[in-house]
Amino acid sequence: MSERIRVYEALQWASxxxxxxxxxxxxxxILLKHHLHVKWTEFHLKRRDVLxxxxxxxxxxxxxxxxxxxxxxxxxxYEFFYGRRFSVSNKVLIPRPETEELVAxxxxxxxxxxxxxxxxxxxxxxxxxxxxxxxxxxKAKVCAVDISEEALHVAIENNDRLGANVTFLQGDxxxxxxxxxxxxxxxxxxxxxxxxxxxxxxxxxxxxxxxALIGDEDKGVSFYEEIARKLPVTLKxxxxxFFEIGYNQGAEVKSIMEQxxxxxxxxxxxxxxxxxxxxxxxxxxx
Length: 286
Known about the structure:
With 286 residues, the protein is α/β, with parallel strands linked by helices. The chain folds into two domains: 7-68; 78-284, Rossmann fold, CATH 3.40.50. Helices cover 42% and strands 19% of the residues. The protein has helices at 7-20, 26-36, 40-45, 53-67, 72-76, 97-110, 128-136, 149-162, 194-197, 202-205, 222-234, 250-260, and strands spanning 78-81, 84-87, 118-122, 141-146, 167-170, 182-187, 235-244, 264-270, 276-284. The strands form two sheets. Strands 5-4-3-6-7-9-8 form a seven-stranded mixed beta sheet, with helices on both faces. Strands 1-2 form a two-stranded antiparallel sheet. Helix 1 (7-20) packs parallel to helix 4. The chain is elongated, with a radius of gyration of 21 Å. The termini are far apart. The mean pLDDT is 92.
């Protein structure tokens, strides 16, 4: 290439380089858009623009880093969730579209029942679930818990920047809110069996916190069991609970919830791809 590198030439190089290394070629667009500091519409209009030497150098560095397994989100420092920009680091799970479906389902389920619920988010990570619910349900009182102090630093930064009003507490699951009952309990707990985690791509296994991913050695459901044991004394009789699950865990998690909450209806919801994704616990029946 000549020294005058145009946007489309940089993208051609990056896409080819990433493909050779088994990475998604779309990462090239995301990285270059980030370095150009433009929105998508403007980015597509800049394809014949010449890159400055500084941008070209920084872009090449990030493309090569991604080819070695560093997630794009860690290179640019953020991911979008429910239309909002959330800061991320290697101390928190990168927000996924599947979790957006969980949040949307919570909002839809509550829309006609309670416009000012008390909500507890267990294992908040980046704060994506708690902050989104607080902003989408303005009268809600939202509390978020995480065992990781480093994760809470990220969540609090996101909360302050996005103008939410979530209360963050450090501790293991229900420990920081002992004795309280909630209208809504929501969680995306670690649910990947360790044997499956060991087979994950390096972008996940080597760069996202194992603490937020590994459920247990075998089925990955130990956190659901621990949560379910506490639900009878932490969820109001009129309350709901929502949990993200692995695609093959629907029947198992449903059974766990029914065992500990025999008076409640429990259902499994599928995601946009037709896979089991959400377990919902309904209010207690008389």
